[in-house]
Amino acid sequence: MTNSIAAYLKIIDTQRDTLDRLQGVFNQHCNEIKANTVLKLQKIAPDDKEKQAKTLNEQNQLLAEAFNALKIDVKKCQENSRKMLESLESEQDQVIVDDLIHQLI
Amino acid sequence: MKIFQNFYNNHVTFGERRLAFLEKPASGKENNEVPQNPSEIPKPEQYQEKGKEVIDKTKETTEKSVLGKAMDRIALNVYEKNKQTGNYDKLAADLRNGIAEEIGKERLQKFAASAPRANIDGKEWAGRVFNFPNDSDPNQFLVAVYISLDGEVKTGDTIVTNKNQENFQRTWKTPQDNFDKVNLDGEMDGVWHKAKTKVHEVITKYKKQEGFDPMKFQNDLLQTLEKNLSSSDLHYLENSQMKNGDQSDNRKLDFTLKGRQYNISFDNVFGAKGVRIKSFP
Predict the structure, then answer these.
(1) Is there a contact between B220 and A93 if contact means CB atoms under 8 Å apart?
(2) How far is CA B18 from CA A66, A67, A80, B14, in A?
(3) Residue to substitute from A31, A52, A62, interface B, most B β-carbons within 10 A
(4) B193: helix, coil or strand?
C-alpha cells in the first residue's frame, strides 16, 4: 500500500476511534443521569405525581444538554478530519509539483 | 503534528464538560408549570439511540468522502504511470487492481454499503466513474468502476470518446471569451455564487502563471470544488439543474482558458453526486 493511501485510511481510523470513545462517554453519562434520577424518584412519595414529573423533566433537560454537547464534539471531530484531509491533499499536490519540477530540471 | 494533537485534545473537552454537567444543578425554569405526562418524557435510552445515529452518520459521511478521495488519488497515480502508453485497457485493469489492493475488501464493503447502488446481474453494485482526459490525445477516456457489497471490484463500461463528437457538443453552450465577464455580483443564489467564485479563484491563479498544465489545472479545479462544496451543496446544484431542465441548464459553467474550452457540471453519475469537468482543445 502506498503511503498516501495509508494516510487516507488513517484519517478514517482516527476519526472512528474518537467517535467510538465519544459515544462511550456519552452513553455512560446518560446512564449516570438515569441512575441519579432513579435515586431521586425513590425518595419521592408514590402519590406525588407532580414531583415525579418535575424530576423526570430535570433528567430530560440534563440529557438534552449532554446530547447537544455530543453534537458539538462530533462536529469538531468532523472538522478536524476535514482539516487532516485538506492537509493531506495539499501535501500530495506539492509532491506532484516537486516531481514536475524534478522532471524539468 | 499539531493537527493530531488538536484532534486528540478535542474529545477531552467532552469529559470536562460531562463533569460540569454533574456538578451543575439543572438550569432553566423552576418548572412550576403543569408537569408533562411522564410517559411522554424521552428516556435516556432514546437519547443514546439519537447519539448513535449522529455518530454513525458522521462515520459514514467521512468514510465515503475520504475513500472517494483515496480512489481519486489511486486513479491519478495510475494515469500518471500509463498516460504515455495510451493503453486504456491496462489503465482500467491497473485502476481496478489498485482500488482492490490499496483500499481493501473491508473498507470497500463499507463504501458500497453507504453508496447508491444498482442491481447488475442479480448483484448490487455501487459505481464510480473516473475521467482521464489526455491533452495529447483527441480522445477522452471514461472508466466506470463497480464495487459490490461484498467488496468485489470490477470495471464496467470503459468509454473512449472523441472530444469533438456530437454527444459532447449537444450539451455545449457558447463559451464565454473570458470568465471575468461572468457577473458574480448579481447572483442571489448563495451556493451557485460560491461555486462560481471558487472556479474564478482557480482560473485567476492559473492565468497569472506563465506555463500552463491543463491536467493540473483541471485537477486543481476539481479538488477545489469538491473541497468547498458540501454534499448538500452538490445535491442542491444537481437538483437545480434538473429543475431548470437541459434547455436552460443554468447550473453549468462554460469558459475558455489558455485556448481550451471547459465545461463544468454538477450531476449524478451512477447515483453518485459530484463535480464533472470536461475539457476540449
Answers:
(1) yes
(2) 7, 11, 21, 6
(3) A62
(4) helix
Cα–Cα distance for residue pair B52/B41, rounded to 1 Å: 19
ipTM of the complex: 0.89
Rg (CA), chain B: 24
Q: Are B143 and B74 in contact (CB under 8 A)?
A: no
Other C-beta atoms closer than 10 Å to the C-beta of A5 total 22
Contact A25 B36 (CB under 8 A): no
| pTM of the shown model | 0.55
Domain ranges of chain B: 52-162, 166-280
Pick from A12, A26, A30: which is nearest to B63 by CB?
Answer: A12
- Asked whether the beta carbons of residue B65 and residue A61 sit closer than 8 angstroms, the reply is no
B111 alpha-carbon distance from chain centroid: 14
Residue-wise pLDDT for A39-70, tens only, equals 999 999 989 989 999 999 999 999 999 999 99
User: A57–B66: do the CB atoms touch at under 8 Å?
Assistant: no
